[in-house]
Amino acid sequence: MKADLVIKLGGSAITQKDTPYAPKLDVIDRIAEEFAHSWKGVRVLLVHGGGSFGHRAAMKYIDGSGRLKDPRGIAETRHAMHRLTSLLAESFLGKGVPFFAVDPSACFFEESDMEPRLGYSLKPVELALSAGLLPSLGGDVVLSSQGHGRILSGDTIARILALASSAGLLAFGTDVDGYLEDGKPLRRIDRGKLKEIIASTKARANDVTGGMAGKLGEVGEYLSSGGNRALIFNATRPGAIASLLRGEEVEGTYID
């Protein structure tokens, strides 16, 4: 499987994270419109976060170890994510883009309960890409042989897809203009300085930087595993997605 680009749309970009089950339909529609005009001829894998859908449902049932042991909690969390995926599909299909939702729980699974390891088969993604579709996956509940569920984040899915497809760029779309230092986005982070920046970011006590630390952690693992280049950008900014699809540089923070 070979992709040019993996784009992850963060939950903060496409939903109102502080309001339960509140999509940013204007942002979703604009992104779909930009795909309609710019994606043809580009092999793209799309991932989206849970935002105020999946996160809201999961928090009712998740335990201290990060597991979902109540079957109802597993089902409700998955259903919430499907609701958000359906909204994306409706918008993209309405613009003529063949959005094809691939169910992550059918591709990913937890191999061990004592020392959890993520197993996966990406054949459905590969087949969708080969068929000329736009494969899309969202954060989801991963099932284990022990009968519980565990949240698999969209950030992790995006990293795995980018490595498996040898993507030229792994792009994380957020609602801020990149990695901010003193309120201004850094244009570039050298991979040699990434660990120091991750440690500094984790030390800050607010939701935005907490989420950013997680993304930077995935970027670090991606690059150390042979990944090419990563980007953190503002997916709510008009024209950003279109520029990415055209292979242009966009405002944000590149990490290489």
Automatic annotation (TrEMBL):
It comes from Methanosuratincola subterraneus. This is Isopentenyl phosphate kinase. Keywords: ATP-binding, Isoprene biosynthesis, Kinase, Nucleotide-binding, Transferase. Gene3D superfamilies: Acetylglutamate kinase-like. InterPro entries: AceGlu_kinase-like_sf (IPR036393), Asp/Glu/Uridylate_kinase (IPR001048), Fosfomycin_R_FomA-type (IPR024192). Its EC number is 2.7.4.26. Substrate binds at residues 50, 55, 154. SUPFAM superfamilies: Carbamate kinase-like. GO terms for cellular component: cytosol.
